[in-house]
Amino acid sequence: MLLLKLFFAFIQVGLFSVGGGYAAIPLIQEQIVNLHGLMTLEEFSDLITVAEMTPGPISINSATFVGMRVAGIPGVLLCSIGCIIPSFCICLILAHFYYKYRTVGGVQVVLGAMRPAVVALIASAGASILMLALFQTELKDAVLSNIRLVELSIFAVSLYLLRKYKVSAIAIILGSGVVGTAIYMLMGAI
Question: Is the whole model's pTM more than 0.85, yes or no?
Fold first, then answer.
């Protein structure tokens, strides 16, 4: 029963994550944490962190990690296949119709109308990750007195370096990991 639950959860993620991997994050959270209770929010936050650092699409990486964490190798296979099947089928169908009707003006209008929804999904995923990093909870449960100052400082410096000096995202990720680890090691030693 658990394997079927995972398979259908990731079919839904694959079916409705329009806009790429980051748009899938709130959908995965809804299915795995909120709806089925297969992971805690903290475990999900760790999963997203590892999935972002691992090469490859974040939705497939997340499916793989959730499957392994919850049901081992069979979970990995079913979650990954469940995540891929909808996209594969939809892409085949859309490619057929796009090449057949790409010169029709209404097609471009529909594609243009979908862009704001995709931006909203990606912004939602970013806000969820930010709240998990700064408060270890969702936005609705965040209390300003519980803000994690180390993470807030790393976020602010990283954002400044990215926007002002166009520092490589890889350097930001590695640097943030080193600085965060060093700070928490020093805090633990004190």
Answer: no
